[in-house]
Amino acid sequence: MADTMTDVPTDSTPTVVNEWLEGNFAPVHDEHTITELEVDGEIPPDLDGRLLRIGPNPVTPPDPSTYHWFTGTGMVHGLRLRDGKAEWYRNRFVRNSDVVEARRGPPVPGPRAEMFDGANTNVIGLAGKTFAIVEAGSHPVELTHDLETVANSDFDGTLPAGFTAHPHRDPDTGERHAVAYQWDLPYLQYLTIGTNGAVRRVVQVPVDDGPMVHDCAITESSVLLFDQPVTFDLELGMEGRFPYRWNPGHGSRVGVLPRDGEADDVRWCEAPLCYVFHPLNAYDLPDGRIVVDLVKHPSMFDHRLDGPDEGTPVLERWTLDPANGTTSTETISDRGQEFPRLDERLTGRRHRFGYSASFDERPGHVPSLGSILKHDVERGSTEVHDFGPGVGAQEPVFVPRAADSDEDDGWVMVYAHDQARNAADVHILHAQDFGGAPVATIHLPVRVPYGFHGNWVAETGS
Asked: How far apart are CA 13 and CA 95, in angstroms?
């Protein structure tokens, strides 16, 4: 089994090293179905579902001089838990045009984006189905329960263009709210997706310069639109590079759009000149202001164009005042971090706890992943769970112990890379004993490369 990629240069070819293709960022080449998994501790018997995650995994060796971490072919990973047992681990390529060509398989049915058709950023359960998703004009890709590719999807003809990597589920209605963008469209699309998996409402909000809008946030009243200074660059695209870069002249602002409003109802709040990939959560205040906790990068794709490396990303609280168009900020944690998550029963409502992965950016190098963090935003404190030397944890996912459990009464689940084994473990922590030993560790015999996002998809719902 070949789990790393090594390019052997000829005497006449200069060596080009791209760190996003090295170490545990490197792709794996084989698809596995593994049913015999070693477990330390006891898997909570109430966990019945799949812990899914996804990331870029080039199916063929890319050009290291132009490769960007965000553009690799998607590979989805899944761990099935039931009755206190780890039933299987699977990994599968998300079949796009590159995978079809490289592996000589049949074409994938359904609509296909012209510029980039690789779903590699998130994997969700929606209306009883599983979807791999990505932003910037590409369509969702429907997967089977066992992670095989079914088809590119436009949600039964209701999705007007591409989708996003971050739809947010309203815990009261079950509907999803999302903001999609596309390089050749002069607007953002605010989408409301019903519990049947069909888009029921679309609002087009005009923007200039083609900004990259990775995520949004919702409150009980509004959706937040992040219009920030990373914009489309045609010249980079023509060179075969990732076509977005830092553009401080574009400015930075957050739009507050009532969830039942139209484009003319957006109220814009000026924001710090920075870049935000991911909010933790947002909620309304009684006086009309809005709180949003988020991870702030000082800039993005300014000095380095192949991945995020522009300084330390920190957790901040922004308080938006739509009445006068201002934003006030304060730092929650100055530790380098990314991939913030919370108990999603509180999406759009006041929260107390949040979880994230350490994400230490070193100038000229790929970020270093290590521990995971638990933030208590009421007390202003942060707990750290360090898995030990040589272990890099990815995005943590919180799963409540029961539907009526307290906010942090549940499990924090995370894929982590163990350098000593050159393989992955899945750790399950009790959130109320965050610094303690995992209640269970499932040892995978293969690597799970550093990637982006994932979710717990319970068997009883999506």
From this structure: 31
